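Chapter summary example.
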Amino acid sequence: MDTNTAMAFLPLVLIVAIIILVIWSAVWKGIALWKCGRNNQLGWFIVLFLINTAGILEIVYLLWFQRKQPAEPPK
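The structure predicted for these 75 residues follows.
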């Protein structure tokens, strides 16, 4: 593959990578915002809504900072 072909292929690779990153980020943001809303954590909701970190902050919130639901007593 010569240099011209490689240079023409690069924008396509970048576009595909950006699309995958946007989908990845949107999925994690949606899950985290849903959990914030259900747990009445307005501060986290605002931060996650305004700051885009490609899913990193959302994953941190989901793993360590969301309120855990109490276990339901057996019936």
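To summarize the output: The helical segments are 3-38, 42-50, 56-65.
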